[in-house]
Structures are given as C-alpha cells and as structure tokens.
Amino acid sequence: MLFDKLNKNFYETIDDKEYPSNEDSVIISSSFGPRNLITPSIIIYINGLEKVIPLNSDINILFQQGIIPSLDRIKLYRVHNGKYKKVRQSNGQLKLLPQDKILY
Predict the structure, then answer these.
(1) No. of H helices and E strands in the chain?
(2) Among candidates 31, 94, 87, which has minimal Cα distance to 59?
(3) Which is nearest to 84 in space by CA: 53, 55, 44?
(4) pLDDT tens digit string along 3-54?
C-alpha cells in the first residue's frame, strides 16, 4: 500500500526532524481507506438556495431524489451572455450546469 509504512530515514529527508526509531509508531494511512473516490461537484440554485450536486447530474436525478416536484412544475434558468434565460426542457434528461436556477 502506498502509505502503509514510511521509515524514519524518509521523514528525516523531508523536514530534518527527529522521529521515533520504532517503525510501528510511524504509520501513515490514507483517510479515504484503500480506495479513493473523488466526485466533482457544481453549485446550482433551487428556489434561491444554494445546492451542491455531482457533475453530470440531470433534472431527473433531482426529481427522483425528491429535491424538486414534478418536472412540469419547474422553471429552469441558465446563464447566457451574462443574464439568466429561461430554458425549455422537453424531458428530465437535460444536464445541469454550474449556476443554473430552478424555481417552482
């Protein structure tokens, strides 16, 4: 494993400090466990409140999670040329972008 054990010599080369010679007291492990998962996120606004959602989310996902009501009751606005413009959406598969606004 990448961070299982690092010996005293390694630490001394990094910052020139003295560390315990007992290798068992020098154990570093990833706080994420054996596998890391990084999820890029974007910020959208729902009824004026900031909401952080995973990148590549669509309106259907918000509906399925109960965050928004039925798709025919929402209005989606997207920034275009520095101003919010209403977006017509035929189905819930429209991908959400940063700064999108959803009102209902």
Answers:
(1) 2, 5
(2) 94
(3) 44
(4) 444 444 444 444 555 544 544 444 444 456 666 677 889 999 999 999 999 9
